[in-house]
Amino acid sequence: MSSSEGELGFFSAALPDEDAQDNVAEETTGMDIDALEQPELFNPIAVSDVPGPAPVSMSDLASTHVSKVAQKHWLHASPSKKGKKAKPLHFSQNVVDEFCQTHVLSIAAMVNEKFRERVANGWSTVTADAEKFSVFFRTAIKLIIAESLGIPERKGLLVFLINSFQSLENAVVRAEAMKLVGISVWHSLRDIEKLEMELSKAAGLRKTWNKAEKKRASASKDSIFNEQFFMSTLVKLYYQVLASIPFPPTQSHHQEVMFCERFVEFVIDLISQLPTRRYLNTLLKDHHFFLTSVRSDLFKYGNEALNRNPPVSTYGAVYVKLIQSFDFYEQFEIDETTGLSLTRDDANIAYYERIQKLQKFCFLKYKDNAAMQEFSLEPVGLVGEPQTFRKHFLQLEDDVLESLCVELGLRVEVLDGDEKLDKQFLVDALCRIYCKKPRQLDVINSLSVYPNEVSLFICVGKVLNTHTFFNNHCLPIPKLNIQFLTLQDYLFRTFELYRLEAAYEIRQDVEDAVKRLAPKYTPDADSLSGTTVFSGWARMAVPIDRFEIAEVGTPSLGETKPSFVTAEVSFAVGRYSDAIRREWESLRRHDVLFLLTIEMDPEVPSWTAGSSKEPGQNGTKTSFRKQFGVKHIRGCMVVDALDGDGKPEDGRGSTNNRRGALTRTIRVLMDANQYEQDTARVTRKETKDVYSTFNVLLRRKSSENNFKSVVEAIRDIMQASDIVVPDWLQDVLLGYGDPAAATYTNLKDPITTLDFRDTFLDWEHIEHSFPEMGLEPTGSLTNNGKRPPFVLKFPQSMFSGLTSNRLGKRKHDDETGGKKIIEVDTYKPLNMGPFLEDLPKKNSIRFTKKQGKAFAQLAVNFLKIRIAVEAIVSGTSPGLTLVVGPPGTGKTDVTVQIMANIYHNFPQEKTLLITHSNQALNQLFEKIMQLDIDPRHILRLGHGTEELNSEESWGKYGRVNSFLEKRLTLLAQVDVLAASLAIPGAHGYTCETAENFFNQHVCRLWDSFSTVLKTEHVSVQAVVDKFPFHNYFSNAPGLLFHSEMTAAEAVEVAEGCYRHICKIFAELADVRAFELLRNSHDRSNYLLIKEAKIVALTCTHAALKRREFVALGFKYHNVVMEEAAQILEVESFIPLLLQSADQETGQSRLRRVVMVGDHHQLPPIVQNTAFQKFANMEQSLFARLVRLGVPTVELDMQGRCRSGIADLFRWNYEQLQDLSSVVGAPQFQTANPGFAFDYQFVDVRDYLGKGETEPIPHFLQNLGEAEYAVAMFQYMRLLGYPASTISIITTYNGQKALIEDVLEKRCRWNPLFGLPAHVSTVDKFQGQQNDYVLLSLVRTRTVGHLRDVRRLIVALSRARLGLYVFGRRELFANCFELQPAFEKFQQRPTSALWLRGSELWTDDGIDRVVDDVGMEREGDDWVVKPDAKESVFEIKDVIHMGSYVHQMIEEQLEYMKKQKEELMDGANSGNNDPIQEIDE
Questions:
Q1: I need a surface site. Which of 186, 281, 383, 574 has the fewest CB within 10 A?
Q2: Are strands 879-884 and 1152-1157 parallel, antiparallel or unpaired?
Q3: What is the pLDDT of residues 653-697, one digit of tens each?
Q4: Are 924 and 892 a contacting pair, CB within 8 Å?
């Protein structure tokens, strides 16, 4: 290792010794090094040199060479003044003065490490001073092309460049990085003629070029070189390194291969974003980047390895895949100048124009050349085929071909050399430009929706093992960053990643089920062969008795694949328990199943050593497929369950019919694409018929088996020539333009007047909500005492979409006293009738008053509005609204108020309510039901409706039944009305007869009565005498009319009664369709399409039903998305596209997108670490929009927990404060009985000589913490705490299982304890809360995934009144990312748990206030105050806690025994049944 390598800290390229590798693996993954499985196609170069560095602690950082260099060169932080934060450390000018190479490398290395571990704000320190960062960045890129650096150091700086271009949302980084890819890179094109050729392609290019050339006059030499020649020089360096790798590559070229792979990743990142692609792609084409890479020895070797069957682990595999990805993006169908996506027709037109232009050029230029003349006269459709094209141009003489290429703008010499490129190279270069290429969409359409054995065990194997990927090298998979080329590119990336993630999860299920089946080879002496039998059993897989293809549909016009393929599968369920049999019998239509062929090899019995490594990884161990004989895997979808006669079972009573049957038969739909490929292989005699070999049927949990619908939804959307996304939203989604362009103040036609109904409770509420605005009562408000409802008209100067086009201002736009004026009007709500059900429901929540900085960046003249109110204003208005809701800030209340306002302000619009989970959807739905929204207009789709806290059914069929029941009720009211009017007849027989009755009788009576009302100076008595419906309203609560009312009041009552009657007939008109439609399916679809105004569903259900929605002509105008930060990007996108374009305008109907979430909490769950970290698949659309700088409204008042507990996570939010209820409510001010502190970190040492353990791989447990947590729960229950108020949560599933076991043993059976309300992992507990939370952190060797601050925030924000954390203090306190929270913990005792005696829990609380802890700090120690020595005591460890709880139990039992004896004595004196009383 060179001296420079020895000084690099994180860049060190040396491999650690074997013991060090073991330690690293154990610390990072919690597993033995022997269990690590390298990806199949990456060994040994696809992953980094080591399994991955362990997470770095504070002490590690302080002891590294990097820290020593930093101490020497960086400015020291100035002492912080009281109340002010110390300034962060920045690198000093010594970097510039001394050009400290090691120092620059160390800074780049630290940035890389932060990105590797995905630490938030990785740039915060080095970009604090833009000028110094500029110097550092220029020095770094100068070093990367310096000859003094070795390949490992250059690779590290290249990674730094990759991270820089993935952080273009950072203005300081963007300012430096974008200089490298501007139009000035065209100075490195072939020559001036080539430059002129490119500049002439678009009018604006020359102007941009001239502008860049003017800037050069004042630039330094280094700046000019970087902008003009750096990228070209970097490509030359890549070519040099690539050429140095021989065929075949050896271990000594490991670093060179990794550098080349990283460089290809770098250029892919650049050409897959419009700002960096626009000029660089031209340069890469000029430099023949693709062809040079393809002709390299590394590519040839990797390609050979990949084409072997099966593929082997070797050098070059990742490189080949990366080059293929580069090829896709270099030729992506996009206009290079405008950035607009090319449709299929656009691409075809461009291709034909290009090839015809070439033919014309060759015809005119080479009249004497027979080959060129022949080429010019060939049909366009034929000449564009690569084989034909090459045939013509390979006939040319070398000088003719060279001359032609020069004329066409191609480089004919080797880059940076005089050597000529060979003929084959030049012909290939021409072919890349002019030949027709297959469209990527056609390739996607030919793919099977289901993964097969190749995609599961070979393709996924490349990035499969989540425990061995440490994000320290690149992978050949798409990335989700902040920008995309087009919507097609966006969908393509999400499609690929979603398929890979689904395949990864499916492979896990397949492996689990096959292992449980335990297949083994049984020889057959008679046939001299053998068969595969299953010695075990699996809940999710059964052996197949019979499988046969039932029908193959004729291909559709223009296609070669079958239109459909159905098959029948029979399997036995008789030997299973009733519970498992019911699971198999409950298979329903659209469920996805998998068909497996398992054929064991006699040479490899199933009882061999259980490793799943591919051959070649350790030399002797076999792969999972070979070990368990997995030959084929095919997916299918259930169509019907068949009865004994082979006929589809009907839905009625089919479950009873099939009960008791030992064999079940189902009809399934196979994948037509896969079937076509399989039959083609059989025809070519490459394999035997797959479909005659299936012997295992596998199912998956329904909640985890929705991948097919999502994949099909993405593919369906990609088919559209013009994906229907609103114009105001598209650029923001792709990451371009003004991030604030889609917000309501910037839209072209904003709505300036909104009816806020019950949003504001009184005038004081509205004044507090707009503190910097003037309020001007207008209209009716001046006469009604300033009572709600309030209608607000905002000043037009607030809306840039209006003010930018206006020549003058109206009166109310003028500022008075520095304040803008909001006109506030009101109206008197209509009297809807005399009955209680006619009264509207009203909001009772006083939305937060705290002033904040929300949306301040929208416009210079923008007003500041109270936070929660601003969220409601923005959400009700058209446009994009992002609401960030920290824990306990009332996200749900704000969401439902937005929906209520939209419902009443825009009654003709339909709104979708989307959440990630059924639980969250039900919470929202229950609050919506409490608002003034007609139940007829509310619909809940999908599973989970049975969990709603409501007597009514809100699903489609439940609502249909409700409508039919309502019909009968309404028709009965029609009969009552007819009887009260003494009009005979069956008027309530049908909706039609009711409508006739209304038109012929009711309307006539009211018209006659209206003439009385219109009489001038009508009297109360006249109204009463002539009112025709006295008898009908005789049962109304209270008198309709009385002597003290005025005539106007009497008229209002009469009109209200008529509105009540009209509402009956209006509802009957809506119900009439259900009377006419006789089919439940049609009725439910009519309900969805016509009646429902608010449709609630999960994002998964939206993907499942997208095809159905589009086919039905479903239309909607608004999307409100809760839990938006927990939803995968693609699952957030699909709900925006559940409808076709408007037939009249061709545009999307979407007017509002409201996303509510918290990107500071846990992101969407992605099982595979490679997809999560490298591909950034865990990034939600919500989080990406926040990164892009889309304005957000951050709710800033929390009302969940005590102020002290909120301090543990408050630091992660901008202005999070406490509601007055938290500050003043008794429950938040009184102490927790029996505890000295309301929150405390308890240091748990080794218990029985052990800390964390791992009984099976990745199943982490800590018995000491589990016993401590359960003992604490017992202690609380003995003090009287209700079990429903206590939750135990932990950071690992293994610990959750252990805690449940301990609870089962010690608590469940005992009526003194019972079980806590929840035992859960932190991840599963997100979105929930409880009064008291006991948190177990488990880890004692490394911090583990709690290093992710988002998980920490969730863990610390679940408790309302008490939080008690069990963990290893020095481990977590020493973690840099956790410092802000653990500094708070360490302000209290941590070495022991401090309790208070003589206190019991009661509903009313205790007299002691929360700050009265009975202890005080003396230096670093805590001591008990003299007046509290009798009550405050210390619990030293888990054994002490267990002993104390045991003592309490004995005392409690003794007390109960004495109490029972006293009652028995009382019974002898004549009391009744005291034994029953004490037992109760």
A1: 574
A2: parallel
A3: 344 444 456 889 999 999 999 999 999 999 998 888 999 999 999
A4: yes
Summarize pLDDT for 169-204 with one digit per residue, the tens: 999 999 999 999 999 999 999 999 999 999 998 888
At 90, the amino acid letter reads: H
Give strand pairing partners of 565: 552
Q: What is the DSSP string of 1069-1108?
A: HHHHHHHH---HHHHHHHIIIII-SEEEEEHHHHHHTHHH
Give me 733's structure tokens. Answer: 């989604």
In sequence order, what are the beta bridge partners of 1432? 1396
Q: Which of 846, 645, 640 is nearest to 761 (CA)?
A: 846
Q: At what angle do helices 423-434 and 398-407 cross, to 10 degrees?
A: 40
Model confidence at 1153, pLDDT cuts 50, 70, 90, reads very high
Name residue 1433's beta-bridge partners. Answer: 1395
Which of 94-103, 235-244, 422-431, 1299-1308 is predicted with the least confidence, judged by mean pLDDT?
Answer: 94-103
What is this structure's pTM?
A: 0.87
- Looking at beta carbons, which pairs linking 1084-1089 to residues 24 or more positions away fall under 8 Å? 1084/956, 1084/957, 1084/959, 1084/960, 1085/1112, 1087/939, 1087/956, 1087/959, 1087/960, 1087/963, 1088/939, 1088/941, 1088/956, 1088/1112, 1088/1114, 1089/1113, 1089/1114, 1089/1115
Query: In whole angstroms, what is the distance from residue 567 CA to residue 124 CA?
Result: 59
In sequence order, what are the beta bridge partners of 413? 420
Question: For residue 933, how many other CB atoms are within 10 A of its CB?
Answer: 19
Cis peptide before 1426 (omega within 30 of 0): no
Q: For residue 1177, which of 552, 544, 475 has the smallest C-alpha distance?
A: 475
Cβ proximity of 847 and 1122 under 8 Å: no
Q: How many CA atoms lie within 13 A of 498 on its CB side?
A: 26
- Residue 300's H or E segment, with its range, is helix 297-307
What does the pLDDT look like over 561-611, one tens digit per residue? 999 999 999 999 988 999 999 999 889 888 999 999 999 888 644 455 444
Distance, in Å, from the CA atom of 333 to the CA atom of 1088, rounded to the nearest integer, reads 38
Produce one character per residue of 699-731: b if its CB has 16 or more CB atoms within 10 Å, e if not. Answer: bbeeeebbbbbbbebbbebbeeeebbbbebbbb
Distance (Å) of CA 82 to CA 85, 1208, 1213: 8, 20, 21
Q: Which residues contact 1192 (CB under 8 A, 6 or more apart)?
A: 854, 882, 883, 884, 1186
List of E strands, 1102-1151: 1118-1121
Q: To which residue do tokens 């252990």 refer?
A: 1298
213 CB-near residues (< 8 Å, 6+ apart): none
Q: How far apart are CA 1107 and CA 1406, in angstroms?
A: 59
Q: Omega into 878 within 30° of 0, i.e. cis?
A: no
Tokens of 1035: 């049962």
Give the span between the Cα atoms of 755 and 766, in whole angstroms: 13
Beta-carbon contacts of 1446 under 8 Å, excluding residues fewer than 6 positions away, are: none
What interhelical angle do 221-243 and 254-271 show, nearest 10?
A: 130
Where residue 886 falls (left for φ over 0; alpha for ψ -120 to 50; beta otherwise) is beta
Beta partners for residue 816, in sequence order: 819
Structure token digits, residue 1381: 């929270």
HSE-CB of 63 using CA atoms within 13 angstroms: 5
What is d(CA 1082, CA 1094) in angstroms, rounded to the nearest whole number? 19
> What distance in Å separates the CA atoms of residue 34 and residue 32, rounded to the nearest whole number?
5
* CB of 1094 closer than 8 Å to CB of 939: yes
Locate the DSSP E strands across 671-757. 696-699, 753-755
Four-CA torsion 902, 906, 911, 915, nearest 10 degrees: 0
